[in-house]
Amino acid sequence: MKLFIALAAILATAVAAPMEGRITHGEKAHEGQFPYQVGLSLAIGSSGAWCGGTLISDRWVLTAAHCTDGADSATVYVGAINIKEEEHGQKRIKVDKADIKVHEDWDASRVVNDISLIKLPEAIEFNDRVRAATLPKKDGRYSTYAGEQAFASGWGRDSDDATAVSSVLRYVEMPIMKSSTCNIYWAGMITDKVICMSTKDGKSTCNGDSGGPLVHKQGDINYLIGATSFGLALGCEKGYPAVFTRVTAYLDWIEENSGVVNK
């Protein structure tokens, strides 16, 4: 079994690499539908990578460690739908390496603690296109979310045949799986620090979606419950559950490193 870590559109065949690409069999997002979604163009040595991320405040972005580990800088796309165009309301913000915080216990070989934070150089102004997602409340009573519907979004590949990330933001709405069921596919890799999404009918995150949001909506509130971590390198449409870093497992770490908390 080969993993792909949802990194950028260049690493999908790695034995233990995160996701790249676009949402497979997803719907096109419309302006303001996912105001918390950001895109990340990462400079890593002489190469580059593309990932997703989530605004959790007007200064902080949450993403995956496999995206930012080794990055020299990041350009954060805020308020974007089409990343190939300079749309009205879209901003691109350069962030230096010093403002990228990778989890100190990130282990690429086991794909554990796959989480990182990016600090923006200044506070951004919220509007209809740009708004932070809400962290789960830090009250110790966390739902497993099993059986609940959730939204995953990003610019990842939209099919296994695609060779590049999507220019347009896409999304899927799918149910969260029980960890015990997910572990049938990912034997020994499913802990209480990750969360799984069904990919029935080929609807899945894919290469290029790495680090992007998994959100559970309650009324008008977008609760960030996951960050895209890994999937099956043999194909995003094969039916293997997509795996995300479980945000509730890292609320203390997020607060300690960014000050962002929902009490």
Automatic annotation (TrEMBL):
SMART domains: Tryp_SPc. One of its GO terms (molecular function) is serine-type endopeptidase activity. The keyword Ligase does not apply. The keyword Lipid biosynthesis does not apply. One of its GO terms (biological process) is proteolysis. Residues 23-259 form the Peptidase S1 domain. Keywords: Disulfide bond, Hydrolase, Protease, Serine protease, Signal, Zymogen. Residues 1-16 form the signal peptide. It holds the Pfam family Trypsin. Belongs to the peptidase S1 family. CLIP subfamily. PANTHER family: TRYPTASE-RELATED (PTHR24256). This is Serine protease 1-like. It comes from Drosophila albomicans.
